[in-house]
Amino acid sequence: MSNDNGAAYSSSAHGSTIGIQAQIVHDSTVYITHPDASPQEKYRVGVRLLQDGVPSRARKMITDAIARGYDGAEVRFHWVLAMLSARTHHDLGTEEVQALRYASGLVRTYAENGWKEALRVTFDLLAVLSTAGGETGPVLKQLQDLPSYQHDAILRHLDLMLTGGLKDDLWAETLERAGAERFGNDRAQRVWAYFAPVPVGARALPPRPSNAAAARAALPARAALFVVSSALLWALALVADPTRAVVELLVALAAGLAAVRLGVRWWGREIRPGRPAGAGIPHPRGPAPGGGGFTDSVRHSFDYYFSVRAPYGFTSESWLTHTAEVRGSLAAEIADLYRESRIGVDRVNWLIRHLAEDTRNRHNNGTLFDRHQERTSDRTKALTVAALVAAAAATLAACGTALSGAVQPRPLWAFLAVLGAAWSGHAAASRWLEVRREEYRLARETLEYQEQLTARQAAYQRWKSRLDDLRPSEREMETWLTCDKTSFVDEALRHHRLTWRDLITHTILVAPGPSYKRGRVRGGPWRYSHYVFRLFLFTRDGIREVSSEFNFSDATRRNEQRSNYRFDALSSVQVTENVDIGYDLELILTNGPARKIRIKDADAHQLAPGENSQEISEITLSATGSTHTFRLLEGIAADGRNWIERHGSENLTSFQVVG
User: Fold this and answer.
1) 315 φ, ψ to 5°?
2) Which of 214, 411, 437, 640 is the most buried (most CB within 10 A)?
3) Whole-angstrom Cα distance, residue 77 to residue 558?
4) Cα–Cα distance for residue pair 70/66, rounded to 1 Å
């Protein structure tokens, strides 16, 4: 079967995954080193990788630092932990065993300090494990005497190495520590921030360019014609009757100037009517966003955030109805601003939430439907009309004066002058007012753009700062995950009434759960909001398998399933890698259906610049315990019950080191 993302999953109860809700790669340099980095820097990054649950890369980093001359008891202590973390002696190659034996011989050459003692205790533990019936009391006393950091690091990274009675002796302490740390550092209130999408930056609609170029170009000719026509008219009037002409000229000039001043306040500041204040300015910048996809997601998100942020006195439905125009305009604006960025709506939800809150606040302030322009009063309109009437009357009077007692061809010139002044005056005034309107609109929209962008940038910084403050570190995420696994193993042991002495070995496989979100830092493994833990307990009677789904935010568990089968019942183990889908583990039993278990999804479409998909896959598989689990299950499928004898004998001889 496959989900909507094209990822295959099993239809059986075991290992089914449903889909991906979000995938986040945090732009962090926590694991990034320059090719020319010093050995000290590589060692520092290696230790951080080890602490954050990425031992495979930690081994490479610390080994490289040692090869370049950076060595000592502290370096060797972390190198040994990196070599053994999430591994058993069966996972060690011949060269690695030899390197560990060589390192054990170096212990006596280091200066006496706390790190040398911790390194000595680590090798003493390994020596006890590789000696049948070894006395554990003295080495446990030495372990207890170590500082807490060294003591806890040894127990954590040698978890799979420690078995039998020694593990039993340490288990109560391990459980106590896991119980204390499992919900520490406000886990339930902070985990969500790790998987929260990285918000995209603030944007606002810039002002539209001025479209008054044509009007500005036509204005000089019409203004010149108006001046010439007016001058001819008043010249003819002055010749006919100078006294009347002067009075009419003064009246026309005064009325004209008044009409200009008042007309600018009325017609020169017109804007498109009906636009709610604060809603985006519609732009004719291409076709409107089509239905479906990002645009529909934006609209649904606006509907949701407006409905949950209704002001007092409104129900969600009534508020949506009341703000339909504002909401539609804002949704169109956001869809237009971000639709070319190839992003999901979850990355702009912070802005949609801010706009919903801003709309509610403006409603509470009584400014929701205010127009962002100066309203023209009725008095101004009346005075403008009166001034125009007075100017027209004075012009007509001047025309009459020019015609009075005139002889040909003066009446014709007077008529042409009036006609030219009327047409050119109207045309020049229209073009001039259009230019003034565009200048005013551009200034107003520029101010509105700056105000909106500033407010949105502030909202973006607030949201980003909150995410940065709440987002757990890699070490915290790994600590919580380790504690969850410890608790899960303990419950399984108690259910089956087993002790560590009853186990040959164990392994726990961590895989993505249903409907998960996932995130990681650059160079780190994927971490999931929902996991499936699958524990395999290997005893001489067979294999006990326990699986359960975990909600990582609150560590709640559901859908637990248990299986028990003999070693020879595991007939085949297959691991399938598909670069477009991910890794699948298929277990085939002789007495049951095949079970396909999703281990990880594909990474290629979620890589940060400079990352290698194969390397990220190896890191994730190592961090989830997949590599160790594959080796164990493949060995059992190949050898059947003979695996017990081979495992037992190798347990005593394959790793003999002394400190």
Assistant:
1) -85, 165
2) 437
3) 39
4) 5
